Amino acid sequence: MKRQAGSVLLLAFSLAAGCGGEKPGGGVAGAGELSIAWAQWQPADALDALAKDFTKETGVRVTVSQTPWPGYKDKMFVEFSKRSDRHDIVVGDSQWLGEGATKGHYLEITDWLPAHVDLSKISPSALRFFCEYPAGSGRYYAAPCETDAVGFAYRKDWFEDPKEKEAFHEKHGRELAPPETWDEFRDVASFFTRPDAKRYGCAILTGRSYDAATMGFQQLMWAYGGSYGDPKTFEVEGLLNSPETLAAMEFYRSLLAFSPKGGSNYAYEDCTQNFSNGLTAMTMNYFAFYPQMVKDLGEEKVGFFVVPGVRREDGAVRRAVSLGGQGFSIVSYASDAKKELAKRFIEWFSKKEQQEKWVALGGFTANDEVLKSAAFAAASPYNAAFAASLPYLQDFWAVPEFGELVAGTQKYFGQAIDGAMEPKAALDALAKEHEEIFRRAGYRK
Amino acid sequence: MASGASASERRGLSDRKIRNLFVAPALVLLIALNVFPLFWSLGLSFTRYDASNPARPPEYVGGANYGEVLRDPEVFRSFHVTARYVAAAVAIQFALGFGLALLLNRPFRGRGLVVTLLLVPTMLSPIVVGLFSKLLLEPNYGLVNSFLGAIGVADPPAWLSDPSWIWASIVLVDTWQWTPFVMLLSLAGLSAIPPHLYEAAAIDRASAWFRFTRITLPLAGPLLLLAVLFRAVDAFKLFDLVMVLVGKDQALTQTVSIRLYLEAFASWHTGSSCAMAYVVLVLVVALSNLAIRTLDRVSGGGSTA
Question: What kind of architecture, by CATH, is found in domain A150-318+398-441?
Fold first, then answer.
């Protein structure tokens, strides 16, 4: 009987211990631990690996909790709504800055950041998009972690095949090479599309998961001269549904003819999967997905190029590249001790030595010194294209209403892409919805 | 006197008190997790409020949220999508489930094993079903299209991308998972019919159709209706399967639950999402009452038949 009572007590104690104080990753709460939240992907594994060095140096244990991309934003903001201190740092998307800053979820680090991180070494676009809110205000809520951009991967072995080169030259009168413009891109995609051989020209981002269709299409919209609206007046009508955006949408839809079946709903992982399975000659995706792709296919089979642009009358190519990547934001609900630890970790991570290790692990740096070094360009087959993409970075609205803006954009861009709606009607409906959101939020009268 | 008193009374606790003590934890949990949020959200439905913004308290706006919800064409669209889905999915699952039950409602070797195996899909989580269905329905190397190609279908569909197939794909996956549930309830209804009624009908040389319409349907009716009611209520809440298979931003499959989720957690319009939840609640309660009344009428009719 005594033994039974003892077992019950032990069970009760275990349950109580299990219910309280447990932090993600199984550690026990304490000043010597740091919990970082990020999406579930390879860069988070790389951060986990790099953080082990921090633990060695400081004794502070770092846990990187990963959540699948589609539900990552919703999960984090539900936690913020509860003022949860479950995580001390969140590696949030650039577009979350507005919402995180204005709702008080992110700790303002305007005074701390310039004093502890050499901002002159950080790429200006990374600083502007990942750290500052509102843009140009000089107020900081994050430090760069993973700087990312959309780029293209292509099958180097197919492009370098002499027979393919000859056939392409015969058909188009120019060399088969990574395309500079979207028109050239369409030619190459069309050339490689051979459904009987289960080979297609391209996979482009069109999916309804999180922001895939938006991040894919907006690059064409900007390159064609369209825009989401006026960032000063928040005027949308006539800009988001302009003839330029419509022409860009028509072009984007035309690329589906060279995509494998189902290409009108390709999320990030679908693009990578179909490319790695040998279905497509070119795929659009964020650079952060490419280290794994190189591991899977081998350097001899895969090459990378910057997102194409539109050739203007003066001969120059107008390009736009969707910004990706995330910054470290300190959760304002963390304890003071954890906030200090978080700052210590960010300062450590931002040093050149760590940035070089970060790049070696497959991460993408915002450190200009590392980015511009010859060693960086030569370190991997994708680094040169990545560095060349940075001057063309542009971002979606990073205002607090990001969540509802991107949901509507995904829906209407998606319907225009898959043909469920006429592109003109979809863009008109989207412009109306965005106007309404801005009006309700008080940006427009 | 001592011999007549219960042990608890001797310790000063009456049976009534003990009963209340046992009921209290469940009652407290029910009030804390169900009743309180219900009334709290009712209050919030009359406010302009963003639960993700702790700095801004709820602001009373009267019935404005209800007005907005009832005027929002997207809300009506989501009700239309849901109603279409409920009608199609429940009808197909009923026809298949009841048909399977009729086939299985006879003794044969291995019947128990067959019924158990047929029930396996129902025991799986919708998320798991969604994830592997996504792989099966993948248009280029998924098993379904490979099979269709092997039997000579020249151009099998892009199930989860082509707007003309997306909706049907979700009904198909849901039907695969939930038909066995309807089958199980139908089988329970069929097994409860006394065999002597069929024997009497056979003696009277009643036709198979006559036996089906006059014995099987009326007597199994209450359980069949219960199956339809359960499925309809469950189908009305469709959320997880859509999220996994096509995502929350696919307009063609934006059900009421998905719309509610977007309103609550993408837009953080906590006040109007509460109002929308109440509109849904009133509708579901009204429809359920209607179904339960029909069920009562049918079971009353069944017992007097």
Answer: 3-Layer(aba) Sandwich (3.40)
